[in-house]
TrEMBL record:
PANTHER family, sorted: 4,5-DOPA DIOXYGENASE EXTRADIOL-LIKE PROTEIN, 4-HYDROXYPHENYLACETATE CATABOLISM PROTEIN
Record EC number: 1.-.-.-, 1.13.11.15
Record-given protein name: 3,4-dihydroxyphenylacetate 2,3-dioxygenase
Key words, A-Z: Dioxygenase, Oxidoreductase
Gene Ontology molecular functions: 3,4-dihydroxyphenylacetate 2,3-dioxygenase activity; ferrous iron binding
Keyword Transport listed: no
Source organism (scientific name): Providencia heimbachae ATCC 35613
Residue stretches making up the Extradiol ring-cleavage dioxygenase class III enzyme subunit B domain: 7-279
Top-level taxon of origin: Bacteria
Enzyme class at the top of the EC tree: oxidoreductase
Endpoints of the signal sequence: none
UniProt entry tagged with the keyword Oxidoreductase: yes
Entry-linked Pfam families: LigB
SUPFAM superfamilies: LigB-like (SSF53213)
Length: 293
């Protein structure tokens, strides 16, 4: 009997990598890095062996895809922002067994999901950036799931989240799940990129993000799930916020009512809204684990 040990929404802004390098941006994202390291610390305390990432930089036009190769290794340069992330080395083990189980459970729910063990299918930076700060010692196995979904329904993404939980519960191990994506995601106009690295593009987006954080802190997910489709549209949610839909699908969707713990306060980055937040597990998940243990 496996268990879900931790669930979180996390930032993956490439300026975290810049923050490590000498120069004018050194230390600019330390609070975000610290949030990732705290999540890693908690995962280790909880005995997590595998981290699943809903990756909003893995764009897919057909079906849902699960990258669950035995091993991932390479040198990554972002094709979107090569002046931010360049020659970043990575080396992680995967979890093919659990990845296959997720695909099977998703298909049972009518979701067009495929699991892949293809050596040349590389990881995207919404997985690589969090793993850089959480998993530099290869402590955790990694599975990446596509969450930049261009032709997919929220209903199917919600069901995929449900399938992830079912697979975890059938798996012999302990798992953490990360929704890796921003809140609002309207990139700042290119001519203002330098001045806007630490600001929002629009006041509307900032006010909406603050409202969302308030709802999350207060556990008001019945309200949030109702507004989520319009929020994702009007505020340009990253990957249309399918990562968040998957996360909440896993946690119970609109019946989820836990107060979220903010590890890294809401901050702007190149026009977008970012944070790190822990979603406490509800009793209907933790008590089910205890009964079935």
């Amino acid at each position: 009997m496996g268990k879900l040990a931790l669930a979180a929404k996390v930032t993956h802004v490439p300026s975290m990598y810049l923050s490590e390098l000498p120069g004018k941006n050194f230390g600019c994202r330390q609070s975000a890095i610290d949030g990732h390291k705290e999540i890693s610390r908690r995962c280790r305390e909880l005995g997590v062996d595998t981290i699943i990432v809903f990756d909003t930089h893995w764009l897919v036009n057909s079906a849902y895809h699960i990258n669950c190769a035995d091993h991932f290794e390479g040198i990554y340069t972002s094709n979107e922002l090569p002046h931010f992330i360049r020659d970043m080395e990575y080396n992680y083990d995967g979890n093919s067994e659990l990845g296959r189980m997720i695909g099977e459970e998703a298909r049972k729910l009518g979701v067009r999901a495929q699991s892949h063990e293809i050596p040349s299918l590389t990881l995207e930076y919404a997985t690589l950036v969090p793993m850089r700060y959480m998993n530099s010692d290869k402590h955790f196995k990694v599975i990446s799931i596509s969450a930049f979904c261009t032709s997919h329904s929220f209903e199917d993404s919600r069901k995929l989240g449900e399938a992830v939980l079912t697979a975890i519960e059938k798996y012999d191990g302990t798992v953490a799940v990360l929704a890796s994506g921003s809140l609002s995601h309207r990139f700042i106009d290119d001519q203002r990129a330098e001045e806007g690295m630490n600001s929002y593009t629009r006041e509307f987006d900032e006010q909406m993000d603050k409202r969302v954080v308030k709802l999350w802190r207060e556990g008001r997910f019945d309200e949030f799930c109702k507004m989520l489709p319009e929020y994702a549209d009007y505020c340009y949610g990253e990957g249309h916020m399918h990562d968040t839909v998957m996360l909440l699908g896993m946690l119970g969707w609109d019946k989820y009512a836990e107060g979220v713990e903010i590890l890294t306060d809401l901050f702007p980055s190149s026009g977008t809204g970012q944070l790190n937040a822990i979603f406490p597990l509800p009793k209907y998940i933790t008590e089910k684990k205890a009964v079935n243990a």
